Amino acid sequence: MSTIETRSVRVPGALLTYDIRHPDAVSGQRPLFVLGSPMAASGFEQLVAHFGDRTVITYDPRGAERSVLEPDGEVTGELHGEDMHRVVEDAGVAPVDVFASSGGGAFALHWVVAHPQDVATLVAHEPPLTTILPDREMAQRVNEDIIATYQHDGYGPALAKFIQLVMHTGLLPDDYLDRPAPDPAMFGLPTEDDGSRDDPLLSKNLAIPPFEPDLDALRASSVRIVPAVGTDGEGGLAWRGGAALARELGVEPVVFPGDHGGFTQSPMGPNNDPAAFAARLREVLDAG
């Protein structure tokens, strides 16, 4: 069994909280940093439980769960990437292997360009890189509509639109925004506005400027970058982001079992198998 040490590090505009799981026996393998955005450390418990033989770091991104965003603190993809660097620097464990999910997989691309000495292998699992998709303009308009809905109508209606977006497969058609808005109750979401506007996804990650990866720098990077997709998400926005990153880097995407959150079994993903996902991740990391 691993022992867990919780630490905090102050960064520009935020106080980050992160955990280090120390293995009882030293395996000689590189430390593993498992992260997402806006998903915090708690979302990866089922995955990291299968890596008790190595040091594992998880963290809460700025503004999520235990990590506090200061009143004047900003949130951008680049700042998230710099935060990843500062966590590893504070922990003193570089170089690390990284499994980065969703927004974390996108923003980690800034990290490995700015601080390549930190990372040996980056597995970017379904990063929603809309800026490199052919329908990027429509994706940005849909994103702006979700943000406007959140500000005007609140959490339930906005998250329902976000869920509808991630469930859509294929290119976003020109008439996408002309379609009826989804009923939040269909997804078990509240229909009444409670007045809060502090959801990490809707108020922060979706509201930041579109993240533009430096593709030329990534192609020339000394870091081994592994774009990854899930077996059950083909055609979805995040799946297409992972596939597009692979094309831009001239590689084939690595396929993992399950959906966008294939590392966690939950009511939203009852068929996901965290053990199989972890086994696949081991294969990918060991191949490097």
From TrEMBL:
Residues 43-141 form the AB hydrolase-1 domain. SUPFAM superfamilies: alpha/beta-Hydrolases. Keywords: Hydrolase. The keyword Hydrolase applies. One of its GO terms (molecular function) is hydrolase activity. The keyword Hydrolase applies. InterPro entries: AB_hydrolase_1 (IPR000073), AB_hydrolase_fold (IPR029058). This is Alpha/beta hydrolase.
